[in-house]
């Protein structure tokens, strides 16, 4: 093994910081940082292009610790590299309010690219980062200027590779020939339950070859091998790279190395002493970072800082030589939408027949695509059904890196994670499409996007029994409730084409979390509008679509999406019967909850307790808006296969049911 | 191509039935049945051991149509084979109330083994069926009797193989060397968006070789090749088999064969005529089934019927020679629990310190394992944390098929689907384990289990911020709400060790859907009990744990799981302050909702509107129980990393908060 004593000191600093932090917290995972420290050290001091003084430099290499439980590895690297992460924060590992939570979180710690912990997510999210990189590079680089040119690295674990999402993402990355994606696989042959032989005996190299990846297998403790492998991987331009690093989990621990006991628990005080002895470390030196180690890492950080300075200089020349491209680049990077953005939205004429909201969504995209050159979207093999195509904007392929249409294949989970990755990378506006029911397949990635505050947009069509014949396997019932319950997700289920336009506006303007657009398969009327019920009110989450009299209504009908027109029809009949009702369109609970109390009260006055909500989905949660006295018309069973109008009748989601509910109150 | 004219007639009957049904419904997927008809025909008339007169024969081969959108293939096969599926039902394809819904549903149509449609599910569920088969075969077969001995076949599609769950399941099946699993891959190179080249260019054969599967590639229209391949696959005993069948989607359609246009839409009347002409079929003969075709299929069905008769004879001898084993077998097959089942449950002594409900769950399993020899469970690499191990019951491996502990690896999604498959197969009681947060990873399989009414049991530990330091990536918030919203799922979050015992009882006795046991990482007290608040009341979903006075309470506290004891402590203090409160333990909304109104009213009297619910999770939906006047103490943001007691304080889920909420009402 060719490791100089300084190198050894650096690696052991990472190891001992990890050991000490986990021991002090009495909680955490020491084994992985100890095992992969050599690989991480070589990457972080010989390859990784980054500037700890500016973690947001857009042209930095991206580093993802997909195996997020090894968070102390990353915190140790960030600390010694000079990121804003003090030794005091390291000492507060896993404590409330620290910058060193149990798993890395991009919203908490400078230098953490993404939140990881749920296995496989980092693997798939990195693919999105690499996609964004190559899209931007092809969009903005010129023969004389390299504006965007960086690698995406990740450390991935056995657990990552067992998760299904790793398959989807790896297959996609191989298909897309993402040459600047380099993953280092920490092959330590140990999982929580014990040896990976218990459950994981596949031939990983062969599997990834089948995906079209470039494979190398190395000793993960040999620095020369690590350096040579990364160098080779960088030179492979038409394949993503997997470097299989054979490592020893808990490296250096006399009794716990190569054992599951080092995986998820502190080593224990006694074993810490023994391990430090084996690593030739002073046992009583806690959280010790030798000066020469700091120097070693900082000299690389300084080089990174210089690289950014040089890049900035280049950018000045680029601006001078390519002023329009430079403006376009800045707009992209800063998520700057056109100034007259609202005016660009299509306006749909009143139309009783109307059109499916998935179709109006497609028309909005068609309108916006000329103004948003960094929009990059796609569907999980339902492009035509989801109406997600940006016509004439090309397909994103190895030969056309500026194509704005991604064919994700039937890979919903990787698609959602890739969109997270693109949003994290910045410079592009990612959206995805599938049937609403298949949010179940991408739920972990939607949740992680919400936690990471990534503004990706989900086009989710076929939103209820309204999809008809495909039946209960395809009919969402509980999905609205289950996603409204998720923190920091904006769910919008627009009630007509003009609400769709403003739903898109809201989604595109959002910068701190995902937006889900929930759209119909079937036609819905495009409703008449005045200033009083302008479609822009969609952005307030709920609004009075129509009162029948000037006086306070006797009852309120609340509806979303395809049931809005049904509520309006009921309102008409109720008026004939002398009942003064209000119709409230409620496309988004979350947006409404963000309004001030006065607005909320103006839409849903507390004094009116006769309330009926109607939505072709689970009634779950609607008590919040209708109150104890109210009534919810919806369904709490699975759907059925049949023509959709019959299904609405069958499940009792009808104008008549709304009318009766009001009259019964 | 060596296809006799009778064979051709049979295959074209399947094709034309599918074409006609889709055309009549004006909805559906004709291309896949047309393309794979040859393969299906050979399988169904030369190999599949089944008896259409008894679709429930336990020793039948299992056939899964993983690509459920090709439902007309299956309906055609069932009809011509003589299952209880008339031509009139075929004519009602995709109509409300028919036995021929858009995607196959096991609860609707005799002979449909499982509900399919969401891609990848059939692939992974079949793995569970094969696991159950080999477990039962090894448990009950003797040198002289073969009680269980059958194959599990599936037809899988490009879409199935793109889904991540196919990776998890295939890797697991290869690891487990499931030799009696034979999958026929309909490789037609067409997906909804167009050529699979758009998104799916991996080397499938190599990928599956990497998993340890046996691979063959054949012309999927050559009957001899199909027969030879299945014969060879049956002879491979230590590897699952993938037979890659090269087919033409929409086979026979002059203008739509090999095109995405035949995938998901009717051919159109004109093309139907042209196709029938090409298939040498009378264009005006709709839903035509020639007599000789019926004879051909029925002669195979008769053979199946004879096989079952013979098996029944064998079983009589088996009963005579191995009476105890035979009783055990019957109990297993009929989901017969021990007669004194309730008495077998452990009783936990009152204990203020108590123990984590994941631990009491483990103790319940330890108690029950000696009485339930067909319990087969495992965890997604969290065995120790989930307390799911059946000690001394062995690990399920290729060399130990009677092991009751399955190491699923970090493959939550395939695990859940495999459990569905085992439950569908029958004869075993499957349970699985992971962290509650990772229900997100297996949500499509949980939902499908609910739809299929499969009684699998999910042990879901680390159920809230109570898990502490692992932080927001691991802390469920919205998960209780999101799963309570799902139809036909029973969610039980027991409040102490004795509630855990009855939660297990309820789960084990359920036969018509999945049960989710939601358990703590942290200790919770074991509560004192009398006859009035016996733990058996857990099965009613909610019950009065304690009143402080004989009179009607002024306020009601409702709590589940780890917050039950917190409510009780608040109740004590409120009594000191002269407030008469009731504590209701509510481990399961679903079970409570199944009670009659009188019982519900006795627990939550309408007259008491001052209600406070407390649960360490999203407040979403709790308005149902506390009403408009009530208050919910919970959280609607993501969690944080830190010691759990600090987190409870931080998020305001405290005894004091409960007390104040009551006093404020």
Major beta-sheet overview of chain A:
6 strands, parallel
Please count the beta strands of chain A (DSSP E, at least 2 residues each).
20
The oligomerization state is homodimer
* Major sheet: arrangement of strands of chain A: 10-9-11-12-14-13
Shape of chain A: elongated
Poorly predicted regions of chain A are none
Number of H/I helices of chain A: 25
Structural class designation of chain A: alpha/beta
Radius of gyration of chain A: 27 Å
Search tags:
homodimer, 665 residues, alpha/beta, five-stranded parallel beta sheet, 25 helices, 41% helix, 14% strand, elongated
Topology:
2 copies of one chain form a homodimer.
Chain A: H1 5-25, H2 31-46, E1 62-65, H3 71-81, H4 87-91, H5 121-140, E2 152-157, H6 158-162, H7 164-175, E3 181-187, E4 190-191, E5 194-195, H8 204-210, E6 214-219, H9 223-235, E7 241-246, H10 269-278, H11 291-321, H12 323-333, H13 341-344, E8 351-356, H14 357-368, E9 375-379, H15 383-386, E10 405-407, H16 412-425, E11 429-435, H17 439-452, E12 457-461, H18 479-484, E13 490-492, H19 497-509, E14 515-518, E15 523-526, E16 543-547, E17 555-559, H20 564-576, E18 581-585, H21 589-593, H22 597-603, E19 611-614, H23 623-626, E20 631-633, H24 644-650, H25 655-664
Parallel strand pairs in A: 1-2, 2-3, 3-7, 6-7, 9-10, 9-11, 11-12, 12-14, 13-14, 17-18, 17-19, 19-20
Antiparallel strand pairs in A: 4-5, 8-15, 16-18
């Amino acid at each position: 093994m060719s490791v100089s004593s300084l190198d050894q000191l650096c690696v052991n600093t990472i190891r001992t910081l990890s050991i000490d932090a986990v021991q002090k917290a009495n909680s955490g995972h020491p084994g992985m940082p100890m095992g992969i420290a050599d690989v991480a050290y070589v990457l972080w001091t010989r390859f990784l292009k980054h500037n700890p003084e500016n973690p947001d430099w857009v042209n930095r290499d991206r580093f993802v610790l997909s195996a997020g439980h090894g968070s102390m590895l990353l915190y140790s690297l960030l600390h010694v590299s000079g990121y804003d992460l003090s030794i005091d924060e390291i000492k507060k590992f896993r404590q409330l309010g620290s910058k060193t939570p149990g798993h890395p979180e991009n919203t908490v710690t400078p230098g953490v690219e993404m939140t990881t912990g749920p296995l496989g997510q980092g693997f798939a999210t990195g693919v999105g980062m690499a996609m964004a990189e190559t899209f931007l590079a092809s969009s903005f680089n010129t023969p004389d200027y390299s504006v965007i040119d960086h690698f995406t690295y990740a450390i991935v674990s056995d657990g990552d590779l067992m998760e299904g999402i790793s398959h989807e993402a790896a297959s996609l990355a191989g298909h897309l020939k993402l040459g600047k994606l380099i993953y280092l696989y920490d092959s330590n042959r140990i999982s929580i339950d014990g040896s990976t032989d218990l459950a994981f005996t596949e031939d990983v190299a062969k599997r990834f070859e089948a995906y079209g990846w470039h494979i190398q297998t190395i000793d993960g403790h040999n620095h020369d091998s690590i350096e040579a492998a990364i160098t080779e991987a960088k030179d492979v331009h038409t394949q993503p790279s997997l470097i299989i690093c054979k490592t020893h989990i808990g490296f250096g621990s006399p009794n716990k190395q190569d054992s599951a006991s080092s995986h998820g628990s502190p080593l224990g005080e006694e074993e810490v002493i023994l391990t430090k002895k084996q690593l030739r470390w002073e046992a009583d030196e806690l959280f010790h970072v030798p000066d020469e180690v700091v120097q070693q890492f900082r000299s690389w950080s300084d080089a990174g800082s210089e690289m950014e300075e040089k890049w900035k200089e280049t950018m000045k020349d680029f601006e001078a030589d390519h002023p329009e491209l430079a403006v376009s680049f800045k707009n992209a990077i800063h998520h700057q939408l056109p100034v007259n953005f609202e005016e660009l939205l299509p306006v749909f004429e009143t139309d009783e027949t109307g059109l499916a909201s998935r179709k109006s969504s497609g028309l909005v995209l068609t309108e916006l695509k000329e103004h948003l050159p960094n929009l990059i979207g796609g569907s999980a093999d339902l492009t035509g059904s989801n109406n997600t195509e940006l016509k004439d904007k090309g397909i994103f392929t190895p030969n056309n890196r500026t194509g704005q249409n991604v064919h994700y294949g039937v890979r919903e989970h990787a698609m959602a994670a890739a969109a997270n990755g693109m949003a994290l990378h910045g410079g592009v506006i990612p959206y995805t499409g599938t049937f609403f029911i298949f949010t179940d397949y991408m739920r972990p990635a939607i949740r992680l996007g919400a936690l990471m505050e990534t503004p990706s947009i989900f086009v989710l069509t076929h939103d209820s029994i309204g999809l008809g014949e495909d039946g209960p396997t395809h009919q969402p019932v509980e999905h609205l409730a289950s996603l409204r319950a998720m923190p920091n997700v904006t769910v919008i289920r627009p009630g007509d084409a003009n609400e769709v336009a403003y739903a898109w506006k809201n989604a595109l303007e959002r910068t701190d979390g995902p937006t889900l657009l929930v759209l119909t398969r079937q036609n819905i009327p495009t409703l008449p509008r005045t200033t009083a019920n302008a479609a822009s009110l969609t952005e307030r989450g709920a609004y009075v679509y129509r009162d029948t009299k000037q006086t306070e209504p006797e009852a309120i009908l609340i509806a979303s999406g395809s049931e809005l027109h049904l509520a309006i029809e009921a309102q008409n009949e109720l008026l004939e019967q002398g009942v003064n009702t209000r119709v409230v369109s409620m496309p988004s609970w979350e947006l409404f909850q963000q309004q001030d109390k006065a607005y909320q009260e103006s839409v849903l006055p507390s004094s009116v307790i006769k309330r009926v909500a109607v939505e072709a989905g689970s009634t779950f949660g609607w008590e919040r808006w209708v109150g104890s006295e109210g009534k919810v018309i919806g369904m709490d069973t699975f759907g059925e296969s049949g023509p959709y109008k019959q299904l609405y009748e069958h499940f009792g989601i009808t104008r008549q049911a709304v009318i009766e509910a009001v009259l019964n109150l």
